[in-house]
Write a structure and sequence with these properties.
alpha+beta, 7 helices, 22% strand, elongated, binds acetyl coenzyme *A, binds zinc ion
Length: 284
């Protein structure tokens, strides 16, 4: 869909201010023309409304009482929360979110029709409220079994493990739905790097655990346990060079290097998603 305000595809805004952060933008986003080419666009970090100046934002903050995204909190563990937002019920917020995220997503079209999507907003809580860190969107009914449409960690929070949390959360939802899921294609370079790392780490951890039981897992078993689609499992095993052909059939064999790398990365102290902290039922 073409936005009537959209005049050019050239990157329009250079800088946004959101919460305590000033963030350089990456790509064009179809904000209304009267907001394009401002030196800084000011964004309310809770409702994602945008303003041409600091004065207008301050005036807005006196009226806007939100201290978290406008949706149901379906997960809370330590300072991390997830809010589920229905595009049909919170059109304004979801449109603002799409405009904001388009600044960092090149290959995705912005959805003006947000009705068919659910939005899962990840926040970090402090004494001022639940601050927007990242999100993913998800079609309510995906013909292709996609469990993520768009995924984003705000640039000021990237490379800190939050993308991994978002991805892990998307698969926890799929497990509850008893479905296998995969992100919508094409993936960006950063999306591909993050998914590959997540798939590999999850599968290797599972296989190392499984070795102790002496029972071998098939690709289908791995898919069922992780909610990853079989193709993603297969490609990950291929990338790990873990598929060996013995006596007329394939076996999954992890090299010592792969196992050592997995042990090293599992020692990194990182936030994890705790499935017990998820209180959620699918809509269908
Ligand atoms: N360079 C190399 N490896 C990377 C990079 C990078 N810039 N970013 C992520 N990775 C890999 C690493 O293996 C990393 O683990 P490590 O830090 O322990 O080495 C792993 O991915 C996970 O990194 P996180 O810190 O958990 O991910 P982050 O919070 O940075 O979020 C995301 C990743 C969401 C893809 C982020 O880069 C982003 O928002 N990018 C812009 C939007 C985008 O491209 N989204 C995906 C589009 S595809 C889709 O929407 C379906
Ligand atoms: Zn607001």
């Amino acid at each position: 869909t073409q936005n009537p305000h959209e005049v050019s595809r050239v990157k329009n805004l250079n800088l946004i201010q959101i919460g305590k952060h000033e963030v350089e933008t990456w790509y064009f986003s179809p904000y209304p023309v009267e907001y394009a080419h401002l030196p800084i666009l000011y964004i309310c970090e809770f409702c994602l409304s945008f303003f041409p100046g600091v004065k207008q934002l301050t005036r807005h903050r006196h009226k806007c009482t939100l201290q978290h995204p406008p949706g149901n909190e379906i997960y809370r563990k330590d300072e991390i929360s997830f809010f589920e937002i229905d595009g049909r019920k919170q059109k304004g917020y979801c449109r603002n979110l799409c405009l904001l995220s388009k600044l960092f997503l090149d290959h995705k079209s912005v959805y003006y029709d947000v009705d068919p999507f659910l939005f899962y907003i990840m926040t970090m809580r402090d004494e001022d409220g639940a601050h927007f860190v990242g999100y993913f969107s998800k079609e309510k009914e995906s013909a292709d079994q996609f469990n993520v449409a768009c995924i984003l960690t705000m640039p000021q929070f990237q490379r800190m493990g939050f993308g991994r949390l978002l991805i892990a959360f998307s698969y926890e939802l799929s497990k509850v739905e008893k479905r296998l899921g995969s992100p919508e294609k094409p993936l960006s370079d950063l999306g591909l790097l993050s998914y590959r790392a997540f798939w590999a780490e999850t599968i290797v951890t599972l296989l190392v655990e499984q070795q102790k039981t002496g029972i071998e897992l098939t690709i289908d078993d791995i898919a069922q346990r992780t909610a990853f689609q079989q193709m993603d499992v297969l490609h990950t095993l291929q990338n790990l060079n873990a598929l060996k052909y013995y006596h007329g059939q394939y076996a999954i064999v992890l090299s010592d290097t792969v196992i050592k790398n997995a042990e090293r990365s599992s020692k990194k102290k990182r936030r994890e998603i705790d499935p017990k902290a998820l209180v959620w039922k699918p809509i269908h």
